[in-house]
Amino acid sequence: MGGKKKLTMKQMERMQEKKDEKRERGGGAGSEKKPSGIVPPDPKSEKVLGELKKMRALTPYTVASRFNLRLSVAKDLLDELAQRGLIEYVSGSKNIKIYRPVD
Fold first, then answer.
1. How far apart are CA 54 and CA 44, in angstroms?
2. Could you give the C-alpha distances from 14 to 7, 28, 45, 90, in angstroms and in order?
3. CB contact at 8 A, 49 and 63
4. Would you say residue 96 lies in a domain?
5. Whether residue 30 has pLDDT greater than 60
6. How many domains does the chain have?
7. Is the pLDDT of residue 29 over 60?
8. 72 with 38: CB under 8 angstroms?
9. Residue 55 lies in a domain
């Protein structure tokens, strides 16, 4: 019936050689993960607030693309600014929230 076919001796040797090369290089699943170098902008900064006030609608995607951030960091930034009263919640669902700058 079906199933995986048996490898030839040459194919098994090649696979073993590739595994040995990976171990020597130190690659594979055992490599160390480095923390990302993404630093969120300071929400108290006048420069950041000035950029946000220029935008008509604030969504996590627009903020993330403007400040070169991840979406999760942009969402946290918008939540913090909304709690401080610098921006106001307009509309949204569980997936996306739309804010606008307070005049």
1. 16
2. 11, 17, 57, 60
3. no
4. yes
5. no
6. 1
7. no
8. no
9. yes
Q: How far is CA 57 from CA 32, 43, 52, 95, in A?
A: 40, 17, 9, 16
Which has the closest alpha carbon to 50: 41, 59, 37? 41
CA-only gyration radius of the chain, Å: 25
pLDDT over 60 at 79, yes or no: yes
CA distances from 101 to 45, 51, 89, 96 (A): 15, 10, 9, 17
Alpha helices in 26-70 (DSSP H): 46-54, 60-67
Whether pTM exceeds 0.85: no
DSSP annotation of 94 reads S
The Cα 95–Cα 103 span in angstroms is 26
Domain that holds residue 53: 46-101
pLDDT tier for residue 98 given thresholds of 50, 70 and 90? very high
The total of other beta-carbon atoms located within 10 Å of residue 10's CB is 8
For residue 61, is it within any domain? yes
CATH number of the domain to which 57 belongs: 1.10.10.10
